[in-house]
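Archive record
______________

***
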Amino acid sequence: MASRNQSIPVDQGYANRRDDSFSRTSIASSIYKYRLENGRTYHAYRDGQYWGPNDEEARYLDVISYVARRRALRRRILKGGPAQPPRLFAYDERQAPSSAHSESKKSHRYRHRDRHVGSAHPNTSIIGTDLSPIQPETKPPNLIFEIDDCCSDWVYPKNHFDYIHVRQMYGSIADWHRFYKDCYDHLTPGGYIEQAELNPVLKSDDGSIVPGDVLDQCGTLAVQAGISLGSSLEVEKSMQDDIGRAGFTEVVKTTYKWPVGAWSNDPRLKELGKWNLLHWQHGLESWTLRSFTKRMGTYRADEAQWSYEAVKKWNADVRRTLKERKHHAYQDVYAKNPHKI
C-alpha cells in the first residue's frame, strides 16, 4: 500500500495488455457469495439492503406469485400502455433498451414474467434487473438481465425507455420521490410507467378477522416492519401523489381484492384464492425472517427481541389460522398506469 507521500508504482505492460479478469471474474464471483442467515441465503450485491432471500424456496415462491398474478389479470402481464413498446424496462421486486425496463429489487426473481413478455413482444428490447444473478439462462433473444440497484444512479440515457414496469417493490425503496423522478426522466415523451403493489394488511368484509387476532396482528407487524426497514410496506398510500409530483399525468388507479383461500363462490376468485393461500403459506418465512430478527423490536411486551424460534412459531400460528375456513381474508392489490407528457 502506497502512503500519501509515495507514488503508486506503474505496471509498464498494463497499457498493452488486455486483462479484464478482475472485472469479469473477481467482481462477478463476489456477487455469488451470498450471505447465509438462519438457513436462508440473501443477495451479496448491496449486501443487507433488501429483506428477501434468494434461495430455491424463494424462487419457488416466485413461481406461485407469477401464477396468481396471471390468474388475477386473466393471463395479461402488461395491463396498460402501448401494445408493443419498443423499449421496455422492468423494475420487478428489487431484494433496467429499443427496450422495456423491468425493475426488480427483490433478489429471488425467476423472471417468468419477463420471459413471457419477451416471447409475446418479439420486437421489444427488454431489460430486467435484480440484485442477485439467479435468472435462467434460457430466455428470448430480445431479453437481457442485469445486476443493478434501482436506488443507485441510473446509467441509461434520458428519454430512452417507452415503458417501465414496477412490481411489488414495497419495503424496498426509501426515497420514492427520487425513484419516480428517475422513471420520468428516462421515459420517452408519451411513455408509460406501470406499477403494481400488494398491501400486506389482511382484511375481511364480514368481520371474520377480529381486531387483535393473529391475522389482524399480521397487518400491524407488517407496518412496524416497514418502519424498521426505513421503507414502507404500504406503498399504495402515497403512490398516486408521488407519481403525480414526478410529472406523470392521467394516473389510472385500479384496486383488486385478492382472497386468501378458496372461500369465494366466484370460480375465478376461488382459484385465485387457492394460489394466494399457497403464496402466503410458502411466503411467510421469506417475508418475516430477516426483517423481524434483524430489524424489529420485541416479540411480546414482556419478551425479548424476535428470535429465529419466535418467528418460526409466529409463522406457524399464522399458517394454521389462515387454513381455518371461518376467516374470509383478502388483501388489496393496487395498479397504476400513468404516462409522461
About this structure: DSSP finds eight helices and ten strands in the chain. Helices lie at 21-30, 56-72, 112-120, 176-186, 214-229, 236-245, 267-295, 308-323. The radius of gyration is 22 Å.
